[in-house]
Amino acid sequence: MSKKSPLKQDIKMLGALLGETIKEQVGEEFFVKLEQIRLLSKRARKKNDEAADKELKELIRTLSNEEIKNMTRAFGQFLNLANITEGHHSMNELKLYDEDSLTKHLTQLTQIIPQLLADGRTKEEVNNTIANMNIELVMTAHPTEVKRRTLLHKHAKISQLLDNKDHHHLTPSEIREVNDSLSILITSLWESDEIRRIRPTPFEEAKWGLAIIEDTVWDAIPRFMRELDNILEKYTGQKLPNWASPIKFASWMGGDRDGNPNVTFETTERVCLLNRWTAAELYYQSINNAIQCISSTSCSDELRAIVGDAHEPYRAFLRPFRARFLETKKWAQAQLEGEVYKSSLPLMEDIEELREALNICHRSLAETSGKRLADASLLDLMRRLSCFGLNILNLDIRQESTRHMNVINAITEYLGEGSYADWPEDKKQEFLVRELQNKRPLMPSNMAFDEECQEVVDTVKTIAQQPPEALGAYVISMARTASDVLAVHLLQKECGVQNPLRVAPLFETLEDLENSGDIMEQLFSIDWYKNNIDGAQEVMIGYSDSGKDAGKLAASWAQYTAQEALHTVSKNHNVKLTLFHGRGGSVGRGGGPVEHALMSQPPGTVAGRMRVTEQGEVIQQKYSTADAACYNLHLYIAAVLQATLAKPPLPKQEWRDIMDSMSKTSCDAYRDIVRGRENFVKYFRQVTPEQELGRLHIGSRPAKRKKSGGIESLRAIPWIFAWTQTRSMLPAWLGIGEALDEALKEGHYDLIQEMIQEWPFFYFIMDMLDMVLVKTDYRVSAYYEELLADDDVKDLGIELRDKLKQTIAVSEDVVAGLSAQEDRIALRASIKVRNPYADTLNYLQGEVMRRLYKENQDGDPVLEDAVMATIAGIAAAMKNTG
């Protein structure tokens, strides 16, 4: 009999500890039922045993409400423990013990760099490309992290204990201590409330984002940069410059007000203060460490001229900066508490002042004590300053386009100039440009606005009060015209913003993506605009809403062609374009491996620059440990380097033609269902837990942009989240089956295979489709329908399952040519192991929803908790939410 792998051994061990906890906390009788259900589910799945599946459903039907709640918690807890263990072992496989580094990203870079050099790129090109990269990771508070922070901390401790067990030579007594600690943590998890009882405020979300920086990323950045230095020195003979910072961080938490009335101008002001407080605290500690480290008494003439005859010149030079950071922290704290603080020292507000001070110290140490000591003492601090600035996270502002239009409309009507909102686009542009150039103010100082307009004005006035470095871009969601962009520029002028934020239109729907090139052409053709953007433009590409609007395939092609058009327009006008990718964690929202995603972008559109959102549970997955953070940061470097210097091929015309055709077919098929069926919304709301997601308190943002309306008003995240829960995954595949089937019937099989093999963009689409379809299960979605759907929507359910089966069949035919990657094999193996647990959770969720809505038990607190627990458990089973 073969020995179980270390991964399986650890999962079995943690599962046994969980079982002991459940026996102790709930009782032996319940544990017997739990095991009976688990074994029935395994038998039903492994042997496709219909009798076992029927018995399982019947047994679940007999459970009391309290038993259902505890059953759901048990399966969810086990899946979380399995995820922790898988993550731990996956990181183990990546570690190089002798270098305390990670093999996979090193392997990628050590493959990519030699290949680039062999293809004719010079060492200088490689080094300069990385040194001048501008990758900005924008952390957002999109509500997809279903686990409470207290549970995440406990999960991290379990992972650390597993690490201790694996990487330290422990005595039998120490091993028992680790096992006891694991048992205590698992008991604590069971005793903890998994459900958020209060919806977090935007300020609390911002604190959560900063905690990720403080806990791991602050320390991971210097380590990541040292690893990068070592790789570059090996292959190019040069390290990065001291102040190089290829990766930076920004945030939407506290600045993203699109459809979220909880984000106000006061929120933005408080978050900016919180960022400054956190920065002051972290830099105070870092400078204090440098003071303790540098005890040298000799220094350069340059430094001596500043400090005079101080015995320890470096300490004398750095102490005032330490004191000023402490003073800045006290000032920010007082501001947050609504108090007045009279500072006795100048606050730390000028990043160049600190940068020059560190340069002086570093030069002096290198001159008198050698570069090694200089780097060891100060380089980490210098690189943190380059990465995080004096505010840790630059805060973007996001608002919906019509909110700006309404403000300007109110002004024009107040001044008797008519209704701006009713003007044609050319008249709007003419008016906005004229007022942008006019030295007198347009907006009367005493003008009264309605509540919504006043909030927009107050937000822009808040921007005017912040240090320039505190803020990032002003993102306009649902941008549709050139006037949408000009309007934000005018509002900044009218509200006294001395250092205007760059304005980034966000193109989200299919139509807006298709028009994006023309819109930017109009803007670049306006002299005022061209003269005021300093030769650079940021444009955001929407993934979530375009997918919800047109389906995955049509949206993907529209995103690709929009980027091509934007790149061409920008190049023609000699404007440096930065594309901001609003990618989510799930495939339906543009997710997937970053290296695949970047290589699938149009040639020339990356060019060493990119911004990308890091959303929801993805933040925790990527940055919860230093190892994971370094690994993912290296993935971005490798992907951007390859996309910049080893550009993907230009698509052939026949590839474009078939994509145009498949995109139209896919979009029509998708919209025929989502928009064309009168009972589609009713079906969606009956057979998915969409209504329950609004009660989950997993984010400050409402589930809808507007209180009324159907699918069009629903946010893309709960839209996808709900379908993921029922294993339908509908947004990620609906329409693609028809498109592929039509292409095959027209004799394009060989052409499609060529596209898969030679075009990264199309390979990525098919690879992601394959991954999504593996996670679907039409038997499970049929179960929800059986329990919950009214008779008048059941025909639609049958049709959707037929479409899913058709998509699976045609996809299996098409992707047969895909290389059998290790990741795909591992994914299938992982899903196979999880299916019995996921099946049970789906059956439990369906039964809870039946009791809530078919037996009129809505409002029962035990069932309400149970349905929340099923949502978290299924998310753990799927390893994502949506």
Automatic annotation (TrEMBL):
Magnesium is among the record's keywords: yes
Catalytically driven reaction(s): oxaloacetate + phosphate = phosphoenolpyruvate + hydrogencarbonate
Keyword Lyase: yes
GO molecular-function terms, A-Z: phosphoenolpyruvate carboxylase activity
Pfam families: PEPcase
InterPro entries per UniProt: PEP_COase (IPR021135), PEP_COase_bac/pln-type (IPR022805), PEP_COase_Lys_AS (IPR018129), PEPCASE_His_AS (IPR033129), Pyrv/PenolPyrv_kinase-like_dom (IPR015813)
Gene3D superfamilies xrefs: Phosphoenolpyruvate/pyruvate domain (1.20.1440.90)
Keywords: Carbon dioxide fixation, Lyase, Magnesium
Cofactor list: Mg(2+)
Active site: H142, K548
PROSITE patterns listed in its UniProt record: PEPCASE_1, PEPCASE_2
Domain of life: Bacteria
Enzyme Commission (EC) number: 4.1.1.31
Functional summary from the UniProt entry: Forms oxaloacetate, a four-carbon dicarboxylic acid source for the tricarboxylic acid cycle.
Similarity field: Belongs to the PEPCase type 1 family.
Subunit description: Homotetramer.
Annotated protein name in UniProt: Phosphoenolpyruvate carboxylase
Organism, as annotated: Lentisphaera profundi
Gene that this polypeptide is encoded by: ppc
